[in-house]
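Fold these two proteins, one after the other.
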Amino acid sequence: MTLVGQPAPDFTLPASTGEQITLSSYRDQQHVVLVFYPLDFSPVCSMQLPEYSGRQDDFADAGAVVLGVNRDSVHAHKAWAAEYGIEVPLLADMKLDVAREYGVAIDDRGISGRAVFLIDRSGVVRYEHVEETTGAYTVRPEAVLAKLREL
């Protein structure tokens, strides 16, 4: 099942930045890159999220904000962000409700899969990539930036 071409499921989640972030609040203002990842402090995620965070100026230049999402708590997000220099908001989807809406929850493991969704300013999913395994990380920031430039 793909969400491409569909309105992105809306949500409000607590963020590492100390605020509640609502997806629809970006509508008509910015594109959103949603990066679902399994766990804070895990090897692949500790490479992926710092890479996306390090390119946030490029994403901003392309009119987009990057949001990381997983089931860890805001407290874990804050500690991990501080240790790895991650500056993008990390959202706490502790019950995996948002991951389920996006079709990326791995309920038997209590985590979300690794996936990237590009949502345009009108709130429609324009690109999605779900990795085959949680250990795979094939969609780098450059690829998502290229998709953004096509919008």
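Now the second one:
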Amino acid sequence: MLLDGVNHIAVFTDDSDRLHAFYRDVFGATVLRDQEADEGARLSFVDIGGGRALHVFEGKGDTESQPPMSGRSRLEHIGLQAASLQAFDTIRERLIALGSTNGLVIDYGPALSLFFIDPDGQECRVCVPNPNVQPGVFHSPGTPAVGYEQTS
């Protein structure tokens, strides 16, 4: 198996504080990071245990970029955890061969991430710990990882 479960689940919310309080009060979860994102949006990371997290995107009133799926949730993407760097590279090669990704690996600091589209059109990503991590250093979304070339 090339995967080691789910790394994170990214969701949209209209109220990060309310969502943080819910996960804190019900599950004892903690907010790992809370920051301003592009154009007044807010991004936070909620530890849900086992090294897994909710990535929470807040953009009040922006329902066009945050469509509720099937009327029940606001799922942005699912992040899968590669079992190892070698597994990550194998998964990347397979996804490129299928045309599911352009191969661009993003360096977020603690993790490397590769976006892909599954056969049903769901945006996903596969993540792996960054072997070149520098403690406390976080890179902006879109920072290309060294050693990985985009295919198209």
